[in-house]
Design goal:
There is one protein chain. By secondary structure, this protein is of the alpha+beta class. 34% of the residues lie in helices and 15% in strands. The strands form five sheets. Strands 4-3-2-1-5-6 form a six-stranded mixed beta sheet, sandwiched between helices. A three-stranded antiparallel beta sheet has the order 7-8-11. A three-stranded antiparallel beta sheet has the order 12-15-16, covered by helices on one side. Helix 10 (287-304) runs antiparallel to helix 11 (313-330). The chain is globular and about 70 Å long. The two termini are 37 Å apart.
Length: 430
């Protein structure tokens, strides 16, 4: 892995929290992701399943974690099963975890090779009454591919039909939504790498550059700072492309007078950051662009005051709707009749700001978190207001990442990344 080894005490603590939520005589199983094929012998780069990583730190394919706190034998209360490495694998694929190295990474003392799994797991299942299975229940999930976890669950239920199967996801949704200090430090590192990328492109952008050239500048800076690269597919959207919310073609030339909307950020050690900025290709905003930019920035600053402990996602967005409406009236994009006649299920402001302002962030860019829960200390949220105006040929979105504090305003992990329009202009014209 490119990143520095994470202190295994984080994963020991995470497992302890999960065990504290398990019912008696219960066993929980977590599988790594597959390496997904493209065609012929080509594959996509491996990306670890976030749940097994959260609980073990193991960042390797063909791995299984079993947690069984009431196991009769103490050595079977937490067990890792790994793909057995050998000289051939080392030559062709590189280093894999040994049993000793797996303990250093995870803090789990009992490590078996995967070939031992059927025998040992059957022995553990004889003792267990309930089994926690790990389905993907994220509110944004829309998955057609059958995962390694899916195949495992199907086989396990067939082999052990008499057990009671329960869900691990509700436990993980809440545990993963509240970050440990070590996790916040890793997210901060991802944000710091993102800052380096953004500052790099401020001196690179000019009329005539192509969106993909800017993407390449970000990638270069991220990789040279121990990131695997982008935390999500980057959006480099110049001109009217910014009005396509998930524009990822990044294949157009940037023209004098246009704005470029960036939604691009680095990962570090599987932890995401999430940044949006909108800058002028020429280095100067027009009067109208600056007017809209400042309105979006005021919305972002207002949202900061609402990202506080005790608030909740629904009340937060309801209040922001009022702020968006006020700013859009001031910009002349809405009038009083639009507001008076609006559909309560799709308010008038949604014509120009149609996405949510915040989402949980962490190991996943759209991280685990139950939206009906109140905000509590340690939750990490994005704050990303935007106004999208196809008739005027531009859209503006501004986004930083924040940690909820026990009292007062949230901590902005991106506070050092240029945001004010005047500062961006100054940096672009040095």
């Amino acid at each position: 892995m490119k990143y520095h080894q994470i202190d295994r005490n984080l994963f020991i603590k995470n497992r302890k929290k999960f065990v504290g939520q398990m019912a008696p005589q219960s066993l929980a199983v977590f599988n790594s992701n597959d390496i997904y094929p493209v065609s012929a012998d080509s594959t996509l780069p491996f990306a670890q399943h976030r749940d097994i990583f959260y609980l073990s730190g193991v960042d390797q394919e063909e791995s299984i974690l079993v947690i069984f706190p009431d196991a009769f034998e103490e050595k079977h209360r937490e067990v890792l099963f790994l793909r057995e490495t050998n000289e051939h694998i080392a030559i062709w694929e590189g280093e894999k975890l040994t049993k000793e190295r797996a303990f250093e990474v995870s803090g789990i003392k009992t490590v078996y090779w995967l070939s031992d799994f059927p025998t040992i797991f059957r022995k553990m299942m004889v003792e267990a009454e309930n089994v926690y299975i790990n389905n993907n229940e994220h509110y944004r999930a829309s998955v057609e591919t059958e995962t390694r976890e899916d195949r495992f669950i199907k086989k396990m239920k067939n082999d052990f039909p008499g057990h009671q199967y329960v869900r691990s996801n509700p436990i993980l949704q809440r545990l993963r939504s509240v970050k440990e200090p070590q996790e916040i430090a890793l997210i901060q590192q991802a944000c710091d790498i993102t800052e380096k990328g953004f500052r790099r492109i401020l001196g690179f952008v000019k009329p005539g550059v192509w969106e993909y050239e800017i993407e390449a500048e970000f990638a270069h800076e991220f990789l040279r700072n121990r990131s695997k690269g982008f935390a999500y597919t980057p959006i480099i959207a110049s001109g009217n492309n910014a009005n396509v919310l998930h524009y990822i073609e990044n294949n157009q030339q940037c023209k004098d007078g246009d704005l470029i909307l960036f939604d691009v950020a680095a990962e570090y050690a599987n932890y995401a950051s999430d940044l949006s900025r909108t800058i002028p290709v020429s280095g100067r905003y027009t009067a109208r662009q600056r007017e809209v930019y400042d309105a979006v920035l005021r919305c972002k600053k207002a949202a900061e005051t609402l990202l506080v402990a005790g608030n909740n996602w629904y009340d937060y967005h309801k209040e922001l709707g009022k702020i968006y409406t006020s700013e859009l009236l001031g910009l002349g994009l809405l009038d009083k009749a639009d507001v008076q006649n609006e559909n309560p299920d799709w308010p008038a402001y949604k014509k120009y700001m149609m996405h949510g302002t915040s989402h949980h962030m962490g190991l996943d860019t759209h991280d685990y978190g139950i939206l009906t829960d109140n905000f509590v200390e340690g939750m990490v949220f994005t704050n990303e207001p935007g106004f999208y105006i196809p008739a005027e040929g531009f859209g503006i979105r501004l986004e930083d990442d924040y940690v909820i504090q026990n009292q007062g305003l949230p901590l902005n992990l991106m506070k050092n990344i240029p945001l004010e329009a005047a500062e961006i202009e100054d940096l672009m014209n040095r």
